[in-house]
Design a protein that fits this description.
heterodimer, A: about 375 residues, mainly alpha, two-stranded antiparallel sheet, B: about 140 residues, alpha+beta, Alpha-Beta Plaits, 4-stranded antiparallel sheet, 2 helices, about 25% helix, flat
């Protein structure tokens, strides 16, 4: 097939919205679009159709009619859709947008909204989504069909709001990379699509935030999965074209003067991306942005990260004072405490805290990283007690 | 083929020979240990014997049903619990001997001083589906 996978999947929400607009029910239409995608692979092997989108709409519509007919026959009921309406209707950006909102339906749990978005808007197969989330394919198939039933039952008139859509995309982005689907890249693709049809500065802030994190991705872990902390990252490996693009998007968003949590987070990420080293970083401004961020999202995680920034801007003692106000039971608090105590010269306490951080680490890469830090400090202490 | 669980304990197993906690090792020794674990898993994957490998957080709670209309009762974590599972590896191998052999190799992971930890691992066969032919 000469069309690439991402281009093909770009068409998915458009095709699906055409079917839904023609009166197809969401769940059956969604299956029909997947069916059309599967058929496109062998059919387009030799040559692309002149109008790939029209082709997909026609085939998906037929698949939908077939499904509706057999369904109707089974239930001994009239077939409502017996003619193929003319193709070539250009779906508007609003239609695609409507799908995002549908998949962020208020009745869906976050994990259901995530998988439904990946399938109905992203066009990923159930198998790809299952692999990405490391669950059996049958489990994922159930999760998706339950989500579709929920959306279908509650009606299409009560879609979710843009906050939920953004949260869903950010959840997808954070899942990162496992299996053969790059969820971070997929989240960026979906956020770009959303930003192109919605003039909300927060959506643009979210896109900028994702791009800024993505630009640093290669330098954040080694090939063996080992974490490379910010101070040790090879900044020449950062994707500077992506950073430039993100900063342009962010500046335009900030100019709207409607600040929100994603713009504030992106501003912090941009200040990191702008610096040539940890020492060169404008930590004072980063602390100011954390204070802005607290207005929108006063969470222990934000306060924890703020304490790190305060430690860099105003010294370890100030960082420890800021840390004292952070809930003791949140993940990574020990790691931050260890870092600040080490900076403050209390190596024995820091070593003990690194060991605690390893014990309570939320993932293996983090656990190994903290264990290395503990071992490093304990060795220093043995040689220079 | 038969599946076996190789179970690693935070607590509850007899003490290993080389019993120095990891944060007291040198950074090089820590690195050598991580590398050994990665290589071991990669080798089993390569030989077609690895099914799954997972690590567990030491933090957990006990939960039980507490009666109609009541939220589940929770208790713990108990610092004094004797047995605490750290993680496992599920392998699918030709024989019980092979399972024992692999557990022995895993237990030789290097620790302090670069010497094998001689950690005790628990090997538990899975109760499999009944075979097609039983007589």
């Amino acid at each position: 097939m000469t069309v690439d996978d991402a281009e093909l999947r770009e068409l998915v929400p458009q095709v699906l919205s055409v079917l839904v607009r023609r009166g197809a029910d969401f769940a059956t239409a969604e299956d029909a679009v997947q069916e059309a995608l599967i058929r496109a692979v062998p059919a387009w092997e030799g040559a692309l159709p002149s109008d790939p989108k029209g082709w997909l709409i026609t085939v998906a519509w037929r698949a939908f009619i077939d499904a509706a007919r057999s369904d109707a026959a089974r239930r001994d009921r009239e077939v409502r859709f017996d003619t193929v309406p003319p193709t070539g209707v250009a779906p508007s950006a609003d239609d695609t947008l409507h799908l995002y909102f549908l998949c962020a339906h208020p009745d869906l749990t976050p994990s259901s909204a995530v998988v439904l978005t990946l399938r109905a808007v992203g066009g990923l197969t159930t198998r790809q989504i299952a692999q990405a989330y490391l669950v059996p394919e049958s489990t994922m198939a159930q999760r998706i069909s339950r989500a579709k039933r929920t959306v279908g039952r509650s009606g299409l008139d009560r879609p979710g709001d843009v906050r939920t859509v953004m949260r869903v995309l950010y959840l997808i982005f954070n899942e990162g990379y496992s299996g053969d689907v790059d969820l971070a890249a997929e989240a960026i693709r979906l956020a770009r699509q959303l930003a192109s049809s919605l003039n909300d500065p927060e959506v643009h802030g979210l896109l900028a935030l994702m791009l800024l994190h993505h630009a640093r991705r290669r330098s954040r872990t080694r090939s063996d999965g080992r974490i490379v902390p910010l101070g040790e990252q090879d900044r020449s490996q950062w994707d500077h074209a992506l950073i430039t693009e993100a900063i342009t998007i962010l500046q335009a968003a900030l100019a709207c003067d409607r600040l929100g949590e994603y713009q504030a987070q992106a501003a912090i990420a941009a200040l990191h991306a702008d610096a040539t080293s940890v020492e060169d970083t404008d930590w004072v401004q980063i602390v100011e942005w954390y204070d802005e961020l607290l207005q929108f999202a006063d969470t222990p995680i934000v306060r924890l990260n703020r304490a790190v920034a305060v430690g860099e801007a105003n010294g370890a003692a100030a960082g420890l004072a800021a840390l004292a106000q952070v809930d003791e039971h949140i993940p990574r608090r020990d790691a931050v405490a260890a870092h600040l105590h080490e900076k403050n010269g209390d190596l024995e306490l820091a070593a003990r805290l690194y060991a605690d951080a390893a014990r309570n680490a939320p993932n293996l890469a983090e656990r190994d990283h903290q264990m290395r830090q503990a071992a490093r400090l304990n060795q220093t202490l043995q040689h220079h007690p | 083929m038969a599946k076996y669980l190789l179970l690693k304990h935070y607590r509850g197993a007899p003490a290993p020979v080389n019993d120095i906690p990891m944060d007291q090792w040198t950074p090089d020794e820590v690195e050598a240990h991580f590398q050994f674990m990665r290589d071991f898993a990669a080798r089993l994957e390569g030989s077609g014997e690895l099914v799954d490998s997972q690590a567990l957080s030491p933090e957990g709670v006990w939960v039980r049903y507490d009666g109609e209309g009541r939220p589940p009762a929770t208790d713990g974590p108990f610092a004094e619990t004797k047995d605490l599972v750290a993680g496992w590896m599920v392998i699918d191998v030709d024989s019980h001997e092979r399972a024992i052999e692999l557990a022995g190799e895993l237990s030789a992971a290097p620790g302090a001083g670069g010497e094998p930890i001689h950690e005790w691992l628990e090997v538990r066969p899975f109760l499999a589906a009944p075979p097609t032919v039983t007589e």
